[in-house]
Here is the input.
Amino acid sequence: MSNTVIKIENLSKIYRLGQIGTGTLSHDLNRWWTINLRGKEDPFAKVGNVNDRTAKAEKGELVAALSDINIEVHQGEVLGIIGKNGAGKSTLLKILSRITSPTTGCVKVKGRMASLLEVGTGFHPEMTGRENIYMNGTIMGMRRWEIDHKLDEIVEFAGVAKYLDTPTKRYSSGMTVRLGFAIAAHLEPEILIVDEVLAVGDAEFQKKAIGKMQDVSRNDGRTVLFVSHNMASIKKLCDSGIVLNNGFISYNGAVENAISHYLVTNTDVEIGRLSSNLKNENIEVNEIKIYNPNGDENLYTGTEIQIEVDFNLLINDEAVYHCTMHFYDELNNCIFYLSSSDSGIDEKTGKGNYRMTFTIPPFILYEGDYRIGTFLIVRNRAEAIFRAKDILFFRVSQTVLKQFGWSGKVGIIRPIFKNTKKYIKHI
Here is the structure.
């Protein structure tokens, strides 16, 4: 497509643990002979184990940091790159930034690129902030008068006017990141690549940085590649997302679906399956059921949702207990909780088997993936004798809601507003 600015085809990156090169002269000659004289692929390129960080390494072992990556990024797109540590995110960005070369495959980039991958990337510590601005601009191919025109904006955005003529080796990590991002964002690159370094900045700077990336994408039509472990920032900024897992792309699509895929695949609890850590010396949770009143295990936004908890109390002090269920969304926000004390029942309980049922009214939850945490509390002592997070994951699907005036996904929860004629009148 004509508006494709980054095209990655069959990209792989192989590293040899503990050594540089192939490790032996015979392997080096074999590689040279195969590539240069026979015109075939690198014989060591397809070699390599999956990049599993938990496995024990062997000397000289070949590991695939990236395997068979295929991506197309279009002009003006904001692409979020998600994955756990060691998944290959930084390696991919370094290849795109031409810091390192791929083992196989090719990368085609259209336009000028600026990247901020680490604290102090592209800075010379002995040079002042002003000198580093001009050096970075020159490296990007800008004329001096173009940099002069942007200098005041860069300094104001970074908030380092007082230290502009001070060597950057005396800057804090936060000041360095602020200046580095300001340079990358204001020197008008067609493609902006930002790694997790924004986490070093304070809350004010992170808000400004995300706003700037949104501005350059929506208003200027520039492309942004953004890596972060902050799912709220990814969701707010990005249009689409890819999920990397052990060097492979496990998902490529809409950003909300990418976040859901990442969160679900990086937990020990599967949709609809209980966590195994549901017992201590005080309580044993036998079963948690979640269903709608029709008995259907499929949950929908427009139906009531019931949660039934079956547990054994293992202590016999006949105290008054209450149980709470906390509900978390995909971004780890606790959106609300339900408590057995809301029922008005105040009874002493002793050792034995108990069952509680909690009800979520219809039109509260949006479609998406949710998880439950629970507490069992001794009321008169305000003491939690049992707590567990991520005991159960569940998924809510969309219902046809046009007749209820549903207007899209805004906010965390969505109670329905009924009987409008009763409350709205002409005055």
